[in-house]
Amino acid sequence: MIKVGIVGGTGYTGVELLRLLAAHPQVQLTAITSRKEDGMPVADMFPSLRGHVSLAFSTPEKAKLNECDVVFFATPHGVAMAQARELLAAGVKVIDLAADFRLKDTAEFEKWYGMPHSCPDILGEAVYGLPEINREAIRQARIIGLPGCYPTSMQLGFAPLLAQGKPLVNESTLIADCKSGVSGAGRKAEVHTLLAEAADNFKAYGVKGHRHLPETVQGLQAIAGRKVGLTFVPHLVPMIRGIHSTLYATLLPEARNTDFQALYENYFEGEKFVDVMPAGSHPETRSVRASNKLRIALHRPGGGDLLVILVVEDNLVKGAAGQGVQCMNIIFGLDETTGLMHIPVLP
């Protein structure tokens, strides 16, 4: 059994980790930390876990995280890098759901997250936890920086186009028009996520620049092996969970006769958590709710030179906790789907 600890289990990604790991056949939940809720049974805070999780929250000092096989950080940015060195020295694998180990350029990290990076040496060995792209590197990793929820949808949506030997689209003018439910903002109390603010409303934000932009460009350029230009506009929509990303790419003249449906189906062949739907489909966020599945559909309006890629995912599962469990499975040599084959919830 894999002994698992979770640092910061009181937020939405923390409870999602608990939901997934409590039912994982190869996991022993060993510790979950919260300084504020020290001593409180987890099921008292999250009644959905009654009968499934018997742990109580504890401070990191009491939790004996060094005795775990892997520790997940479902914490604000900056927490994982403060504790990673000690855990790695004890032989513990680290999977961070925040941004501490995503951006390879420390100056970029400091620019977008407003804090210095305290362990650039560890950042240098961290593996970006997008299994469909970095599976082999994840197998050998000691520390994983999980992608953000928006970047997961954008990178997997554009990947088949960029992974070819020669450009198929104008790679300097990629556009991502993305929408997220309010759980993407976390469980903390903020005015813009209050019911009276977010309900019956739809708005863009971060148009000047969003912290997920440099992460996504870094990933897309690694896939392409060349420079990529991206315009990314996120939106907040009045739903609890889910991401819908509409991606746009302009075809190059020499690529007009490419069978893009076949290109995507071949690229993702065998991937259990990426579903390339029939051409012309319109995937809905509810079709992936509470699952680790990401669905993609392709459109070419009027048969013209604009390729439209629709991508949906659950921001808390494939966009966060589920992807973390997927990486854990790879690291420990388990079947990648173990504990993750949940059927999406309808209605």
UniProtKB/TrEMBL annotation:
Q: What is a single cellular component term in the Gene Ontology annotation?
A: cytoplasm
Q: Does the keyword Cytoplasm apply?
A: yes
- Per the UniProt record, which EC number(s) apply here? 1.2.1.38
User: Which SMART domains does the UniProt record give?
Assistant: Semialdhyde_dh
This protein's pathway reads:
Amino-acid biosynthesis; L-arginine biosynthesis; N(2)-acetyl-L-ornithine from L-glutamate: step 3/4
Q: Which reaction does it catalyse?
A: N-acetyl-L-glutamate 5-semialdehyde + phosphate + NADP(+) = N-acetyl-L-glutamyl 5-phosphate + NADPH + H(+)
What keywords were assigned to this record?
Amino-acid biosynthesis, Arginine biosynthesis, Cytoplasm, NADP, Oxidoreductase
> According to the UniProt record, what class of enzyme is this?
oxidoreductase
Q: Which first-to-last residue range defines the signal peptide?
A: none
Residue span, Semialdehyde dehydrogenase NAD-binding domain: 3-141
Q: Which CDD domains match?
A: AGPR_1_C, AGPR_1_N
Give this protein's Gene Ontology molecular function annotations. N-acetyl-gamma-glutamyl-phosphate reductase activity; NAD binding; NADP+ binding
Could you tell me which Pfam families the record lists for this protein? Semialdhyde_dh, Semialdhyde_dhC_1
Q: Where is the active site?
A: 149
Q: Which InterPro entries match?
A: AGPR, AGPR_AS, AGPR_dimerisation_dom, AGPR_type-1, NAD(P)-bd_dom_sf, Semialdehyde_DH_NAD-bd
Gene3D superfamilies for this protein: Dihydrodipicolinate Reductase, domain 2, NAD(P)-binding Rossmann-like Domain
Any one GO BP annotation for this protein: L-arginine biosynthetic process
| Location relative to the cell | Cytoplasm
* Protein family: Belongs to the NAGSA dehydrogenase family. Type 1 subfamily.
The record's listing under NCBIfam families reads: argC
HAMAP family, sorted: ArgC_type1 (MF_00150)
Q: Which PANTHER family match?
A: N-ACETYL-GAMMA-GLUTAMYL-PHOSPHATE REDUCTASE, CHLOROPLASTIC-RELATED, N-ACETYL-GAMMA-GLUTAMYL-PHOSPHATE REDUCTASE, CHLOROPLASTIC-RELATED-RELATED
Q: Give the function comment from the record.
A: Catalyzes the NADPH-dependent reduction of N-acetyl-5-glutamyl phosphate to yield N-acetyl-L-glutamate 5-semialdehyde.
Per its record, how is this protein called by name? Answer: N-acetyl-gamma-glutamyl-phosphate reductase
